[in-house]
Design a protein that fits this description.
By secondary structure, this protein is mostly helical. The protein is built from eleven helices and two strands.
């Protein structure tokens, strides 16, 4: 076997083991949570299973293959990490506010009382933050970074974004445009890691967007989270608003994604040097 073939096999093995550990972990943890709480805990089971499985898969693979620690997959905490996290939170939340706020300002939407019980703001915040962190560890953690080091950015980011969309394909009220936008988000978050070299920037973008949408009274990826007692009533077609799926299923989010790519390209991101990419970046 040639040296290049051997390296390719090693990369494939590492990414494959990570994927198997992550998927198996999600299934086991989700079944346990649902067994304890029943169907009413579906959203909680989804978040807990992704976070726990992704953290375990990253930690195990880093330990076995790199003799490293979970923190070295992109969780180093320093001044650059804090700056990148704040940039991400501001970009994600600000984008969500624009997507919903502009239609409100021009009369294309209005707030209306939402029937039903309100969810705890703190519980929703914690759930969404852990959900964002779990998905970033799963899609842009060890397996993604191994492939990134071997294949380069777009040969890794684009296929991963398709997997990211596929993972959301069973969400309620999903549509072809929602799937396309979700793939776009996957590509944006992968690019955020490539720009920053840490997971804090993509986690910030992901969490900021996920938190701001329910706070504004719209659905998030097909899920309704009534945290304020008010919801958006749209006066424009679903192709623009996203309908029951939420703004992520509409053209407004498509346009915002294009702006976010440009903003991320120009943003004063501070690049870090995670263990798995030091050889490629010469650090």
């Amino acid at each position: 076997m040639s040296t290049s073939s051997g390296k390719a096999a090693a990369v494939g093995l590492k990414a494959g083991v990570f994927a198997v550990l992550g998927i198996a972990g999600m299934v086991v943890v989700a079944e346990v949570v649902l067994w304890v709480g029943g169907g009413a805990w579906y959203l909680l089971a989804s978040v807990v299973s992704v976070f726990a499985a992704a953290a375990a898969a990253n930690a195990v693979c880093m330990r076995i293959y790199e003799r490293g620690r979970l923190v070295q997959v992109g969780f180093e905490w320093n001044a650059a990490a804090r700056r990148n996290l704040l940039l991400g939170l501001g970009g994600g939340a600000g984008s969500a506010l624009l997507v919903v706020g502009l239609p409100l300002l021009v009369g294309a939407a209005e707030w209306a009382p939402a029937p039903g019980s309100e969810a705890s703001l703190l519980f929703a915040f914690v759930l969404l933050v852990f959900g964002a962190a779990g998905e970033e560890m799963l899609f842009h953690g060890y397996g993604f970074q191994v492939l990134l080091g071997a294949l380069g950015p777009w040969a890794t980011i684009l296929p991963t974004s398709v997997l990211f969309a596929w993972a959301h394909s069973s969400n309620l009220s999903i549509s072809p445009l929602a799937l396309a936008n979700t793939a776009g988000w996957g590509a944006l978050l992968g690019y955020a890691f490539w720009r920053s070299g840490d997971l804090w920037l993509p986690i910030g973008l992901h969490a900021g967007w996920n938190w701001a949408l329910p706070l504004m009274g719209v659905n998030l990826s097909g899920f309704t989270m009534n945290v304020t007692g008010y919801a958006i009533r749209w006066k424009i077609p679903a192709v623009w608003s996203g309908g029951d799926y939420g703004p992520e299923g509409g053209v407004l989010t498509t346009a915002m994604l294009a702006l976010l790519f440009v903003g991320l390209w120009k943003a004063p991101v501070r690049r870090q040097h995670p263990l798995l990419l030091r050889a490629r970046w010469g650090a």
